[in-house]
Amino acid sequence: MAHQQQTGIPPFHLAIPVDDLDKAREFYGTLLGCEEGRSSAQWIDWNFFGHQLVTHVAPDRILPPAHNAVDGHNVPVPHFGAVLEMDVWQALADKVKTAGIEFVIEPYVRFKGKPGEQATMFFYDPAGNAMEFKAFADINQLFAS
């Protein structure tokens, strides 16, 4: 699932703090299906939907997120994630529910009937990093204003 990559778009690189690499392996590798790349005792590279995500052991850098109101929900800031195809997004939502992961914002369609209409969901990784995954029925609406 995590190998999806948009053609012609350069891969993005993001490094995030975690407090436990075993939990990161379980979450990113087993649950999200990200392929593990290089690693050490302090970090792991992941193929995160075609992008490079690195989980670094840095528990003192893990901070609780702030929140901003968006479409009637309190969105955690900072957060990161991926824009997926709708069927991949739905499969991930089902997988996260089945795993018993608590949603910060349950899967739903945001901006319904407006420019930028999108399916979205938010949840935390085991270290407390906020994640958003979204999908568009029409990917041309990604940057709609």
Word description of this protein:
It comes from Aliidiomarina soli. Residues 10-136 form the VOC domain. The protein has 145 residues and is α+β, with helices and mostly antiparallel strands. The protein folds into two domains: 13-58, Signal recognition particle alu RNA binding heterodimer, srp9/1 (2-Layer Sandwich), CATH 3.30.720.120; 66-141, 2,3-Dihydroxybiphenyl 1,2-Dioxygenase, domain 1, CATH 3.10.180. It has two helices and ten strands. The strands form three sheets. A four-stranded mixed sheet has the order 1-4-3-2, with helices on one face. The chain has a four-stranded mixed sheet with strand order 7-10-9-8. Strands 5-6 form a two-stranded antiparallel ribbon. It is globular, with a radius of gyration of 15 Å.
